[in-house]
Amino acid sequence: MDLEIASGATGRGPGAAPVALSVNGETRVLEVEPRVSLLDALREHLLLTGTKKGCDQGTCGACTVWVDGRRVLACLTLAVACDGHEVTTIEGLSADGELHPMQQAFIEHDAFQCGYCTPGQIMSAVKLLEEGNASTDEDIAEFMSGNLCRCAAYPNIRAAIRHVRDHRGGGS
Amino acid sequence: MRPLSYSRAATVEEALAFTAGRSGSAFLAGGTTEVDLIRAGIAHSDHLVDINDLPLRAVEHLRDGGLRIGALARMSDVAGEPGVVGRFPAISQALLLGASQQLRNMASMGGNLLQRTRCAYLRDGISPCNKRDPGSGCAALEGFNRGHAILGTSAHCIATHPSDVAVALAAFDAVVHTVSPDEERVIAFDDLFLLPGDTPELEHPLGANELIVGIEVPGASITRRSVYLKFRDRQSYEFALVSVAAALEIDGGVVTDARLAFGGVATKPWRARRAEAALIGGPADHTAFRLAADAELEAAVIRRHNAFKVELAARAAVRALSAVAR
Known about the structure:
The complex is a heterodimer.
Chain A (H helix, E strand, L loop, with lengths): L16 E7 L2 E7 L5 H8 L18 E4 L2 E4 L12 E3 L12 H8 L9 H14 L5 H7 L10 H15 L4
Parallel strand pairs in A: 1-5
Antiparallel strand pairs in A: 1-2, 3-4, 3-5
Chain B lengths: L4 E4 L3 H8 L5 E4 L5 H6 L7 E4 L8 E3 L5 E4 L4 H6 L1 H6 L1 H8 L4 H6 L2 H6 L5 H4 L41 H7 L3 E5 L4 E5 H4 L18 E7 L8 E6 L10 E10 L2 E10 L6 E2 L1 H7 L6 H12 L10 H18 L1
Parallel strand pairs in B: 1-3, 2-3
Antiparallel strand pairs in B: 4-5, 5-8, 6-7, 6-8, 9-10, 10-11, 11-12
Helix pairs in contact in B: 5-9, 11-12, 12-13
């Protein structure tokens, strides 16, 4: 195909080209090659380092973000494929310096030790309650299984999630 | 990661045009296998055609009771679709027992079927592997083969097919609809997955420029009484050591129709036709279920570390059949 006439998101690469990402409600244009993951675009290009790189192969969940309001893994998502879609990271969760109730609950319930998996856990946990699969501890464990915690803070993570579920409505 | 070019298609025709005549092209759907394998240096595509804007996400219930799943429907959407939950429970259960919610939100149904084996010797990029490097040998034959297949194997490959939902779809006689520049095809589910034989590098019969557009499951009352059971090394977010999709129709204590398929034990989603033949016309009891499972597993070829799968698969089948016999 004729790369010259291609516009928008078609016909890019392998060199860098502008990609317009909507991140946390703000449009950010960055120059990235098509091979750049959403995770690297966020961390290395936009310096949003709250999203963590754990395995970089879709097995740990540390890079969990939302694309169009659904929790996904940023390491297996190409940044260029997010052109035209809404990305939300942990930095976009709190408003006006106020912690999101899930962030507050993680602090109150001591739901982390080293903290590396925590942004991914929280981005997953907020969606878990929206998805409505958090009525029992077994369900919480099952639907949070994509977020590994090598410190094994799982009981406290579940306690934090229960707290938000029971005090904010939502879940079911 | 090697450099990549990228195109985004808006229609099926455009997707096929973007891949035509461009070797090294691959369709990009959820990307959960594709991006991973390109980064690992196992897949060698250098041009990805993003098909996520194609209108192939619908889950439709057909007038004859059948189910039509768009190739780009996400695993999580299909798993939670009320008609799938109610009329094809094994499909919903298999989807929910696969991967994690994040991956289920990303992964497409078409891509799920074409996902590659999780055999560590394929993925390490170094060991002999006839899928990755035809003729180099198979490190799994004498290696750590605890997770490997006991059915459908060859002297050249014993890798398992990793999909859960494909096992349920195999049991339900699904077909796969594809489009290429030359034709539209309907492929019987069993024909979509090739046995390794002498050519384990050939995993499916699709052309380079052929796109899965949908999966169709024929309507049949037996699907309503179905179950998917999965046994694995950890409780969640793990591939199966053994899994079973099972469905029964029973009339006056006699099995009148049976569906049974295995995952985690075979080189493809394994429809257990011998077991089904043994079940039909017999009593719906533990002894008959065990004999049927044994009939299927008679053909098992075990390796050093995976002999346990024979007994585990038989017990899993008995448990699944007992569950739907109640």
